[in-house]
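Shipment paperwork, digital attachment
Item: protein structure file
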Amino acid sequence: MKKMKSFVVAALASVLILQPWLLGGTAGAKLDCGPVTNKSDSLPRTIAIGTNPAGTGAHALGAGLAAVASKATSVSGKVQPYNGPNAWMTLLDNGELEFGIINILDSKMAATGTGNYKKAYPSIRIAQGGVFPFTVGLVVRDKSNIKQVSDLKGKRMAWDFGGHAINQTWQNAMLEIGGVKGNDVVQVRVSNLNDGVRAVAEGKVDSSIVALGIGLVEEVNAMEPVRFINLPDTEAANKLLGQYGAMIVKASPSTGVKGETHVVGYPLQLATSSKVSEKAVYTMVKAWWDNLAELQTLHPLFKRWKKEHQVLTNFTVPYHPGAIKFYKEVGAWTAKHEAHLKEICS
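Attachment content:
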């Protein structure tokens, strides 16, 4: 428990000091904090939540949020899976998607057109702080002789991940903390995360990044038993990961976790857009807040979707005004949040 609390403090503090090289060398990249452009007082008939493919943690979260939205409001919620945020970000920016599941580093890159994004998507806003911590690691076949990151030298790694480029960023970081560079491994390009993880079980690659506790891991483990590599829990590792808004955490028991295993943990958020009306965002955020107990029965990840995590104090992308209105009503949005909003928008 002490480790988990320290994760929250450290991760939220670190996201404010993401290094310029990580954001594409554009230290001066500015956020667009303009007003909501959709002034409608009517709720939409439907909302769509962009996620990763079925079997992933993001998809499970999106499906749960859509189900509760449909039950608790007059709006019909649906989940729309894509290869990743790089594939659906244009739709969010155009107003064709209302929400999307995205990690805290990816959202800042998208907002500023840095890192894995060739252009900025200025309309992105945050609706909810989401899951703390969302955990990922490097998975291998259990029978392999790969026991630590350094054993991956010369091995075949799933690479690129198509429309979910942030997976490559996280995977590179995990390799780096183990002293492995990209040119130390055989890079096998895959079109998405699911293909990369399945390739491990099929023997086409030796390792891939994947989240813990998701259906995809269950699926591949049924094909061929898999195991997460134990990552080094060192000061140097946490210093490097701190630049990404992440840190090393102890894995909770789940498929693929064999003995004491350390993995990477970071915040996973619910994003929206300034193209979505204040009334729509307010209504959805209120429904999810009021029905958190039901959400937590739908998937284990919602156990880490807690009320105290929904209003970050060190957010890197502005919160949507509709969300802010609700959080003020329940006393979650404070003067500290308001000051930070002015700081990042100045």
